[in-house]
Amino acid sequence: MVSAVLLLACSSKTETTIVSAKSQTMIAMKTAVNQKDADQYVKRSRDDVEIYLGPRLRIQGKQVLRENRAKHFLKHPNIKSEIQHLVAIDDKIVMHDNVWLHDNKEGKNIVEIFSFENNEIIRVDVIQPKDLFN
């Protein structure tokens, strides 16, 4: 049974009122990416958060995630992210965002499925192009 569904289309050209606390978390995370702030990025993640890329566990733990993001922001100082769509279903948020690693390249589409427990992120499933970092 689906208790709530929230579908938002977001971009730099539109303004959308975000009413869900979980959706606000997504906005805060993308702001953290654009500000290269690893501490803010992990702020609403549980200590034992798990990040999956496809079926493989890639990152386990909030501190490991923070360190990973800090290194990523240093390696890609021009990274920029824009949320295209958010869908909230029960304790999950499905987010489609566009990410640019370099100023002169086209953005890449990424889909992330965030699972929450008590308004904290407990798991993220990431679907991204194989050539994202090329």
Give me a quick take on this structure.
About 25% of the residues lie in helices and about 40% in strands.
What does this molecule look like?
The protein is α+β, with helices and mostly antiparallel strands. Helix content is 25%, strand content 42%. The chain has helices at residues 21-35, 38-42, 62-75; strands at residues 5-9, 45-53, 56-60, 80-89, 92-100, 108-117, 120-127. A hairpin with a 2-residue loop joins β6 (108-117) and β7 (120-127). It is globular and about 40 Å long.
Task: List descriptors.
134 residues; alpha+beta; seven-stranded mixed beta sheet; 42% strand
Topology:
Layout: E1 5-9, H1 21-35, H2 38-42, E2 45-53, E3 56-60, H3 62-75, E4 80-89, E5 92-100, E6 108-117, E7 120-127
Parallel strand pairs: 2-7
Antiparallel strand pairs: 1-4, 2-3, 4-5, 5-6, 6-7
Silhouette: globular
Strand sequence of the main sheet, in spatial order? 1-4-5-6-7-2-3
- Give the helix tally: 3
Could you spell the SSE succession in H and E letters?
A: EHHEEHEEEE
Strand content: 35-45%
Structural class: alpha+beta
Q: What is the average of the pLDDT values?
A: 86
Low-pLDDT stretches: 1-18
Termini separation comes to: 41 Å
Which percent bin holds the helix content? 25-40%
Number of strands: 7
Radius of gyration: 14 Å
Largest sheet: 7 strands, mixed
